[in-house]
Amino acid sequence: MTDPQSVPPDAPAAPPSDVAAEAATPPTPSSPTGADVAATVVVDHVTKRFGDLVAADDVALTVSEGTILGIIGPSGAGKTTVVRMLTGALAPTEGKVRVLGEDPRKFRRRTRQRIGYMPQLFSLYPDLSARENVDFVASLFGMLFRRRHRRSREVLELVDLWDARGRRASQLSGGMQRRLELACALVHEPALLFLDEPTTGIDPLLRTKVWDELQRLRNDGRTLLVTTQYLSEAELCDHVALIANGRLVAHDTPEGLRRSAIGGDLIDIETVSPFEASALSDVPVVASSDQLGPRHFRVVVEDAGTATPLVVEAIGERGGEVDSAREHRPTFDEIFAELVHRDREARGEPDDAEAVA
């Protein structure tokens, strides 16, 4: 069907006949025997060097079963390097990696069949149509014709490529090719998914649809690691790993990262006439304040819901009058910038715009 020499390096290997029947059964997201249920993926202080370049610097994290981990950072931060070590494509220079209880470089074929991978680089068969690409990948995982036919249509409809199913992959636009690669990664319903920037080049409406599907898979008990440059997608993950300059800057829930960066909740306040926010320094619920303009300032509090009326009352007692007071939720661009700045400051490194671009 396809010249073996033309098979892309990221394409999955065909299962041998003795496991084909087993592979025909849908994979389940259960943990491997003897593995900790709470640690589907373990990255144990991993460093990866390419000569003098440190692409990943002492990265340590775990990924729980049935969760979405977003690995977020700018281009060149080290996200893809981490994913390639998790899939066995790269060996760590230092540290250890365990995925589904195994060393990725020594995966059993049965374990590989439980993993889906969408690489960052083009890895489709250009002479096959969109549907033929998906159908071929499904066949490699032992899916029988009827289920393969149904599932191929489902994933092509998910990524809005059903109407283009007869077009060759080489004739698709760059964004359509990314969507087709995502369909190929999802077709066999793997227990563990590695998606390297799956929404790059995809329009916002379709990006929302893709994330709905990823969250559905999570709700079914599957585990997903998703790298992205879109910091706004952090809100859609269960946990977020912020990476910059090869270092793990922070790893927490989206809300945990927000509170870590800000120190609590933010209340955005505008007054009728000029008011000095420093006058609130003795108010117990106010942790700190930032004057943004003569009548505009923000205060950090533990809980915005309970603190807002107390802050408004305190302003009135000090001769001010509040025009508006509302909770301010910083974007993940702001959170990322603050956490990267704090990391560089702690290491005594000069801060620069490129670190948070």
What is the total number of structural domains? Answer: 2
Number of strands: 13
What class would the helix/strand composition place it in? alpha/beta
Envelope shape: elongated
What amount of the residues lies in strands? 15-25%
How would you write the strand order of the largest sheet?
5-6-7-3-8-9
By CATH, the superfamily of the largest domain comes out as: P-loop containing nucleotide triphosphate hydrolases
Mean pLDDT: 86
CATH class of the largest domain: Alpha Beta
Question: Outline of this structure?
Answer:
With 357 residues, the protein is an alpha/beta fold. It has helices at 17-23, 79-86, 109-112, 130-140, 145-158, 174-186, 204-219, 254-262, 304-317, 332-346, and strands at residues 41-50, 53-63, 68-72, 94-99, 115-118, 192-196, 223-228, 239-244, 247-252, 265-271, 286-293, 296-301, 322-328. The protein folds into two domains: 4-252, 3-Layer(aba) Sandwich (Rossmann fold); 253-357, Alpha-L RNA-binding motif (Alpha-Beta Plaits, 2-Layer Sandwich), CATH 3.30.70.1560.
